[in-house]
Amino acid sequence: MARGAFWLALGSVFFTLEASASPLPPPLTVYGNQQLDAYEVENRLGIQILDAPVAGKQPVNWYGRSSELSVSSHSLRLLSVQGIRDLVGGTVKQDNTQALFALGEAQLVSIQRSPSATGERIVINLDKPAFYQVITLGSNLQITVQAKSELPANVLPLGLISQNTPAGIRVEIGASSPGFYTVSTLGSPSRIVVDRWTTGRSDRLQAWAADLVYHESQRFWEEKPRRIAWVTFAPKTHRLGLLVNDPLRSLQPVSAMANLQNALVAVNGGFFNRNTAESLGVLRMNGQWLGSPVPGLKPRGVLAWSDKGDWVLDRLTWQGSLQLGEQSFSLVALNDSAYGNGFGLFTSKTYTPVGGEFVGTVRKGQLVSIREGSVGLGILIPEDGYLLVAKQSAIPILKTVAIGASVDFKVTVLPEKIANFPNFIGAGPLLLQDGKLVLDPNLEQFRSDVRAEGVARTAIARRGDQGFLVVVSTEGNASGMSLESFSRFLQTELQVTDALNLDGGGSSALYLGGHLRDRNSGRFERPIANGLGLWPTPENPRVNSILP
C-alpha cells in the first residue's frame, strides 16, 4: 500500500484513504457557444445529473442546491458554462476549448458508516462543497475529493486514521458481498453520500426528445445485482439504420462507427468472425445484400425494417441462386470467405483467397476473367461488379464458363412478409414474438456458450410503436444474464412483446450522445463488424453533430 494510504475493515465494507494526485478537477471541453457536456459535468465535477423527463430541461443538484438547466439540442447533451458556474460558485478559467473550475479548498471533517434500508450508507462530511470524481474498480468504488484532511485518529470511526495530504483525498470503498453503489450530495452541512445497495433498485432517465428517452437502472433482480441501460425511441421520428465499416470486412468499436456515421444512438449488431472480420449473419442495407447466413445452419432470428419506421422480428430463411449463362446453381455464401464448397460472391473492395479456389471477375453482368486464387494475395473487386468464387465442386463448372457469359444472382427470403424490406440484420436467437416467449437456441443451432449465465447482452425490442435498444452490462460486479433470464427481463420488466438477441459478451455496447453508457469512461471497447444506429428523420431534425 502506498505511503499515506490507510486500510480499515468495517464489517463487510473496507476503506482506504490516501493522497490524491491533483487539487483541481480535470478541465472540461467547451463546445459551441460556451457549453459543456453534461456527461463530463457529472463525471469530472461531481454535479448530480438528475431525472430529466422533459426534453430540453436538465435538473441538477450540488450539495443541496437544485437547479433546472436548459439543454441544447446537439449530438451531445450540452449545458451552459454560466449555468454550471452559477450552481457551484467559485471561479472558472476558460478559453474557446476548455474550462477549469476551482473552489476554495475544502476540509474533510469525518467519514461515517451506518446501515440503511437498502444496505449501507457511507457519508463523507466536508466543511464546504468540493468537486469529486467517482470510478468503479471491480467491486470497489473509488472517490477522489478535492479536499484536505487534518483529522486526528480519534475523529474517524473505528480507528480509521488520516494525515495531512498535499493535494486532496481518495477514498476507496470495497465489499466482499454483491451490491452496487450510488453517489449523491447533501448540503448544510456539505456531505458526499455513498449508498451501497444490497437490495432494491436505483433508476434514472433522460429525455433527449419527446420520443427518445435514455434509461439506466441498477437493481437486484433474480437475486443478483444488475446494470441495464436502454433507449426507447419512435421509429417514425428516429430512423433505424445499419452501421457497417468501410471496407466492409473490417472491425471498429461501436463508438467509432457511430462518430464516423453521425449516429446519435448505437449498439453492437450481429455476430462476426474476428479472424476474417466478416459478419456471420444476413445483412442488407438500402436494398443491397451485404452478407448471407452461415451456410448449412437452420433459420435464425432477424430484424427487417424500412426507412419509414416499419419493422419485423422473425426467423429468416435465405436462399441464393446464381445464373451462369444458361445454367443455374445455388449461391452458397455472400461476402463469407469461410464457406467450404460451391459458389460464393464478394462485393466489398477486395477479396483475399484462402486457398483452393478459382475466382471469376464479373463486370456489368458479364464474366470478364477467371484465375486461380493465390493464398494471401488480395484481388480488387470492380466498382461495377463483383467476384465470383468457386470452391471444390464448383471449380470445374466455373472453368467451363466462357468469358463474356452473362452472370446474375438472386436472393429469396422467407417468410414472405419480410421479403421486400430493404434492410436486414441477422443475429439471434429470437427471444419474444407477439408477446410470447419463443427462445429456442437449439432450433437456431446456437452453441451452448451463447446461452451461458452471467453474460453481457444486447437486444433490439419493441412494444407497440415504441422501439427499445437494450444492453445488460457486467461493469463493476454487476451480473450479466443467460438468454433465458434476458428474455424474462425484457418480457416482465420492460414489458416488450418482440425481441431479438444481438451479439453479446465483450461485443455488447450502448453509445449515446458521444459516450458509451454501459461502462465507465476509458474502459476497453471491442472492435466489431456491424451495429445498429439511430438518426433523427428529416421531419425531426433535432440533432446537429458537433463532434470532431
Task: Kindly summarize this structure in a few lines.
By secondary structure, the chain is mostly beta strands.
Describe the structure.
The protein folds into four domains: 6-23 and 105-199, Immunoglobulin-like, CATH 2.60.40.3500; 28-102, no CATH class; 205-271 and 427-536, no CATH class; 317-414, Jelly Rolls (Sandwich). The strands form nine sheets. Strands 27, 28, 29, 30, 31, 32, 34, 35, 37, 38 and 39 form an eleven-stranded mixed β-sheet that branches. It is mostly beta strands. The chain is built from five helices and 47 strands.
Please describe the biggest sheet, giving its number of strands, its sense, and whether it closes into a barrel: 11 strands, mixed
Strand residue content:
over 45%
Oligomer: single chain
**Helical content band:** under 10%
Number of helices: 5
User: Low-confidence spans: pLDDT under 50, at least 5 residues?
Assistant: 1-12, 153-165, 542-548
Instruction: Classify the secondary structure makeup into a structural class.
Output: mainly beta
Number of strands: 47
Q: Could you say which overall geometry the principal axes of the C-alpha atoms support?
A: elongated
Please name the defining characteristics of this protein.
single chain; 548 residues; mainly beta; Immunoglobulin-like; 11-stranded mixed beta sheet; 8-stranded antiparallel beta sheet; 5 helices; 47 strands; 7% helix; elongated; disordered N terminus; disordered C terminus
